[in-house]
Specification:
five-stranded parallel sheet, 7 helices, 198 residues, 7 strands, 35% helix, two-stranded antiparallel sheet, alpha/beta, 2 domains, elongated, Oxidized Rhodanese, domain 1
Amino acid sequence: MSANYKNIIAIIIVSSTIGFIYNSLNPKGIPLIKEKRILIFEEEQSEITDSDLTDTPVTERNEIEEQIIAPSEGNIIKEEIPNAVREFTKPVAIRLSRAYQLYNQGVIFIDSRSKEEYADGHIKGAINIPFYESEKYEDVLNKIDKNEIIVTYCSGEDCDTSILHGDELFEKGYKRVYIFHGGWDDWLETGYPVESKL
């Protein structure tokens, strides 16, 4: 081997070693072996105790939309959300029927997909905060009270950005986060309210 190839190989080895060391010491480092996040579905949760309940009122999705985006045309009749909603120890997964129930109660839905996917179609009234660009949307997120119930969703069961987004929101202090596991695919297939920006 020529000296140039030996130098290149040495540089690659040293760079890789430094990268691995930095990654392992960094609290936000990327795990070398991906840990599969096990979703706990709401129906699998244990009974709610009185100590799990709080009396914080919930702001309806339309009030948040008015602060964040232009108000949409027409209002959906909302059922009242019970004031006693528990805080979770981590985000809780839900299925389509529960997501629709929360939607009808005026809960905030966050679409974790890209701006382009959101523009193509999304759950009516959902707020778009793309997970991979969420730092650009801090001002939007800061308008949502940390006691609000939030539902994150993405494309469907094979998409994990809603899980990652739910976990990130939980770490930021939002303690009532649901992850809609079926996501956009299930919602669209059922014919529930949708809209697009096209």
